[in-house]
Amino acid sequence: MRKLFLVLLFLIVFLYSCEFFSTPLQYGLAPESVRTAAFAYAQEYAELGAVYEWGGQDPLPKIIKVDCSGLVVRCYQYACSDFDYFLPFTDMNAAGIEHYCDTISPETGDLIFMGDDNIISHVALFDKFENGNVYFIDSTDITGGVSERNYPITSSKIIKYGRIHLYH
User: Fold this and answer.
1) How many CA atoms lie within 13 A of 147 on its CB side?
2) Within a 13 Å sphere around the CA of 55, how many CA atoms are in the beta-carbon half?
3) Tens digit of pLDDT for each residue in 127-161?
4) CA–CA distance, 17 with 48 (Å, rounded to integer)
5) How many CB atoms lie within 10 A of CB 71?
6) Rounded Cα gap, residues 36 and 152, in angstroms
7) Quick one: pLDDT at residue 160?
8) What are the phi and psi torsion angles at 118 (to 5°)?
9) Number of Cβ atoms within 10 Å of the Cβ of 109
């Protein structure tokens, strides 16, 4: 009888520790805390001199090679882990990331989707609007790496602004 009790007690503790009885993950838009942390990580990539490499998704702090979507994915992965959130994907191109976003009026850390002829081919992390320009951080072969840049707000390259969905 004592063995049966110990086995049952072990199973209960084991299942509870595995969060067997926990509530399911909630799916919703990224809160301000995660967005601003993601932007801060993008600034860190820029400060460390991350270079552009198509398909790159190197983590901090090694010699860093990232492309635009790799930068967004990594920055959001780091920010999510800081606040117990999870991205619904681990790797994605700019057009794919857009499918996980709602169109919004952007705030720091939200995403800017860019391209030509209304076809998304680039993504960046939004910073601010100022003096008729939109400021952002991205990784591109134009600058050779991660940097803070801006375009006029009216630029035809800007397709939309999005806030990413996360699990919590």
Assistant:
1) 10
2) 0
3) 999 999 999 999 999 898 999 999 999 999 999 99
4) 39
5) 30
6) 23
7) 97
8) 65, 25
9) 27
pLDDT of residue 140: 94
Which residues have CB under 8 Å from 132's CB, separation 6+? 152, 153, 154
Please state, as a whole number, how many other Cβ atoms lie within 10 Å of the Cβ of residue 142.
11
- The residue that leads in pLDDT, 48 or 95, is 95
Angle at 93 between CA 51 and CA 138, to 5 degrees: 40
For residue 118, give the amino acid letter: N
- Residue 115 amino acid letter: G
Say how far residue 142 (Cα) sits from the centre of its chain: 22
The amino acid occupying position 111 is L
**Confidence tier at 25 by pLDDT (50, 70, 90):** confident
- Say yes or no to pLDDT of 1 above 80: no
Q: How far is CA 36 from CA 76, 107, 123, 136, in A?
A: 10, 9, 16, 13
Q: 0.70 cut: is pTM over it?
A: yes
Contacts of 143 (CB under 8 A, 6+ apart): 52, 149
